[in-house]
Amino acid sequence: MPANLEQNLELARLCQDILALNDRIYFVSTINKNGKSTESKFRNDRIFRNLTPQQIEMFYIQRTLQYSLTQEFDDVLGPLDSIIIQRETLLEFIFPFSNGVVIVMTDLDVISRYLAKTISFLIRDFEHRITNQLFA
Known about the structure:
alpha+beta, globular, 136 residues, 5 strands, five-stranded antiparallel sheet, 4 helices
């Protein structure tokens, strides 16, 4: 199987695994370093239903830029584990990974620190699988 196809299948699996963690997770997407979605899984698309394609693109670019700007402080403060944004209606989680960022949107009624640690574990597991496939 070509490496690119295999990696795409692993990204789809990562998104599905994250979505399966909790019924209150609405949406998971992997965003590359250029701000483009490479994989998305929805449980409920109510968040994006009213956005135009341009607004969705800007949302992805903004999240990628937000993470990129935090990297400026990695040497002084340590690397970023996650960013949690609380809105009036939902929580947004941003996680760095080798290909860019993972965005997760949830209901407000989740235990955010526990969920963030669990998602981080799945992302580390994904990174390990991809690394092993490259050197297998």
